[in-house]
Amino acid sequence: MKNTRARVIVALVLLCAFLATAFAADKPASQAWDLMWGVKIPMRDGVKLNATVYRPHEQKDPLPVIFELTPYISDSYHERGTYFAQHGYVFAIVDVRGRGNSEGKFNPFYQEPQDGHDVVEWLATQPWSNGKITMWGGSYAGFDQWMTLKEAPPHLATIVPAAAAHVGVDFPMYKNVFSSYIIQWLSFTSGATGNGNLFGDSAFWREKFGEMYFQHRPFKELDTIVGNSSTVFQDWLKHPQVDDHLKQLALTPDQYRAIKMPILTITASYDDDQPGAMTYYRNHMQYGNEDAKAKHYLIIGPWDHAGTRTPTKEVGGVTFSDAALVDLPKLHTEWYDWTMKSGARPDFLKKRVSYYVMGADEWKYADTLEQVTRERRTLYLDSNGKANDVFHSGQLGASKPAGAASDQYVYDPMDTRAGELEAEDVKAYLTDQTAPLNLFGGGLIYQSEPMNEPTELSGFAKLVLWLSMDVPDTDLGVTLYEIRQDGSSIQLTTDLMRARYRESMSEAKLVKPGVVEKYEFSGFTFFSRQLAKGSRLRLLIASPNSRMLEKNYNSGGVVAEESGKDGKTAHVMLYHDAQRASYLELPIGK
Which helix (H) or strand (E) holds 18? Predict the structure, then answer.
């Protein structure tokens, strides 16, 4: 499953990224810069957005302008502004509508396409601008870049979206499952001022999410439990699937075809918004024109969400080599020089796709995302009918099962033992073994034989399961691990499914109890890792039961409105016989 503890620590780490005042870069020690404070940018409806503008000292000639459109208050990015001003660019940090010193009311996501367009065109007319405008930023600010591009402002020259969120793909829900984190984020961005201390108070959020979880209260009450009902939380819950309201913020095939500019996409194996970043990239590769696709570069680092702007050598208990410490501000500058100043292509971008292979600790390159995977290898699930814990697991093997055995697990939404064991210190979430060791019969585990040689897995996994259940709906989480010879584990990739959306993310179809159906998990996150000789693979299948997620009580009703009184125990059967082979597809790297 999408590791919920990973999601919350990534969210907390985001604060450090948003408020960071130091980052690896070749910043000149003495070069001066000039400031324009409180610049007001008019929007088409008369609302004025506030910008803090950084310029090279005593700028004489018009220059390209980089801007960031942010809900996190302009002062958070002071160091970025000074850096780019010291490297030959004007940098404008613009508070989004209703935040910081900008006028208007903040309506997350929906206001940004038009406002982004208007900012571009206003900046292009200023005397210190040469008319070439670009953008910088990640997460929400990565989303802003795609939404600005969606509106096709004539003076937008290039974008560099990092960890770009995609509405309906990974925010405000992931696979149509809401996370508790959304009210934490909405509280961070409530009102006009910064709320960083509240956002970062992990003890408070853990306690409040726990109140909902242990008291079996409906998810829709979470804003009341937290004490902040002034947000759009309730409005978001009215759209539990990808409907027309959410699709407003997706680019159409025609809009992808119209793209002409160069683009640099940055994401990472453990980036919480990787699904969004990859959706933009893959859609552009599917619908875009050949010339524009040839100018779209992709970087996939080993980092987490914050690392897509400030890389580190350690994520969730997994460490990397110095090669992981890419100087991203320098790379941004080189990209802007190449696309707006006739500079050389950045040396780092040897091919259109750059990806870091963990374990081998090296960067590799490919012309397309598909070329990252050399071949696909199938491992079939099998067992003797007992696969409920790490000590009595099923098998992942190359041969199709010949017997008729099946496995069963039980998910009781009223059982809170797993929630009680959720670690408070989640810094090592990628190597934490709490979930596999404490299933309480509530999941299934399948393990492979040891690897005969080091084996690189790079790309997207896929899992096909034949399942039946005795409830009209439940959630299904799947996680793939490397188990090393010393018994330690490393999380590789995850996927999540709400059963009612097994056929479509836009249309719910409740399960017919007792009917065996095929469930395809084709939304695993990208990962690249060289497994050591002697390592095994472990596949964990379970129904998520965490304070960090909207709990599915299995009744088949509106999930956000379900509570303990609606709870139904799910008995999930997994089949792996000759007629219904359940299997895992692995992406074998080059």
Answer: helix 4-18
